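User: For a benchmark we're assembling, each entry needs the component sequences followed by a predicted structure for the full assembly. Here are entry 17's components. Please fill in the structure.
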Amino acid sequence: MSVLRLAYHYLRIGALNELQYRINFWLQLMQSAVALTVGLVGLSLVFYHTTDVAGWSRAELLAVMGVHILMGGLIGALIQPNMLRLMEDVKQGTLDFVLIKPVDAQALISVREIRLWRLVDVLVGMVVLGVALVQLGETLQLLALFAFGLALACGAVMIYSFWLILTSVAFWVIRVDDMINLFEGIYAAGRWPVGIYPAWLQGLLTFVVPVAFAVTVPAEALTARLDSSTLALACVLALLLFLLARLVWRTGLRRYGGASA
Amino acid sequence: MADAAISVAELRKIYQVPEREAGLRAALRSLVRRRVREVPAVAGVSFTIAPGEIVGFLGPNGAGKTTTLKMLAGLLHPTDGEARVLGYQPYRRDYAYLRQMTLVMGNRNQLQWDLPALDSFELQRAIYRIPQTEFRATRDAFIDLMDVGAIVSKPVRNLSLGERMKMEIIGALLHRPKILFLDEPTIGLDVTMQRRIRSFIAAYNQRYAATVMLTSHYMADVEALCQRVIVIHHGRVRYDGPLAGLVDRFAAYRQLEVSLAEPADLSHYGEVVAANGVHVTLRVAKAEASRVSARLLNEQAVADLTIEEPPIDDVIEQVFAT
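Assistant: Structure for entry 17:
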């Protein structure tokens, strides 16, 4: 797999890069701690008044929060920086250097950047998840763990595809920096299971920005709420979205080279 | 010609440029109906280049040099006409082709900013899948040739512009491409750096029989490297032949930069190109240059005087404007 080989080399370079700024590790740790505290306080405030939210118990919501932090870490460490770099490259004209390389351009633009310290959130998310599972008192079935992993992977692919589609729009409209803020605002909504939102917002969070699949569905897998048809749907949607993203990316590239103009 | 490294026939590239007048109202109107204007950047260019040739590709800014290079490197899709490089159609971007060519752009870089160049070289190795032993041999030879052994392990951000450019070039050639497109590789560098890069390119061309297309604003680059030059202007080839012919034909004059003690009219010495108070730029025939300088020094209160070759851009611009 040449994609994995490339990813490994860039991961190595990225790690070297980030190790030069060790202070960022502490900053990230602080940021993660603050975010976690705010999340926990919010959660306990809600459960001060009630015992369940839209059918989710406190421990289950903690699990959702854990997945939200974990996925947020993956997005911030691996997906977002690459997309930002792509936008920058389109703006500066340095995308040319990608296109003259004898490797798949999409693979290359997807693995070039890593924010190593954002992976702190992946660890924090896993710890929160662990605590939630202990509170739930459930013994983890291997099957549930597998379903969780699969759902998480599907969610990540969907978020990646969503980002690539947005970023490919950079070929048409050059100013897209605001998309980051928009995305982060919407992703913040994923802290709660999408089921608690009104129907129109649920639709938005499921099919426009796939936050539901990135956070709620994996959490459901872990808390034994997930039925297999939802998981199958997640897989199919992930694949479709990925193919769509590739199509949009290629159209964007053709546009960049002026083939369709 | 079947064995040409690069052959281009009636190549054209037309850009669609959105057009609108200034002002808010025009901007709003253009939202509804976008008017596009067609701008021919390359308007039917033909030439062939044999394997191993170094060709200077010259022309004023906006002549279509970069657009042509980008089409040959597979970055832009030609609007019309045919381009073949090593038998490939560049815009298809076959990996087999990309592996054999490189593009260096003097004003853009691809090295990892915060890391030593060595790490970026390692990435190139991974991307081009260069075998380890071959990679080491090539890398070390290039480092030697560029004389950068002492700075390859310094972060790129701490290097000077010239040092960085040397690293860029090494990185871009590690896979030993047969075709080199060099777009202003020496832009903004001092004379020593330019000279080193020039001799590196010459050595690379010698050793690997590589074909080179070079654009530069520096006549010295072209004189040192290119037997042949292709001059384009307004998207068309205006001259294709030996460099000697170009210099004879178009650089038949010199520029005198004169600083006077007090302003004076120098128009009877030669053509005044620019006069800014006590600083005057004169254009005189090449053969006359030393005689006119002597007269100036004798007859005027001259504080400083230099004789310069006219900038290549000016020469070309002037010649083709007529």
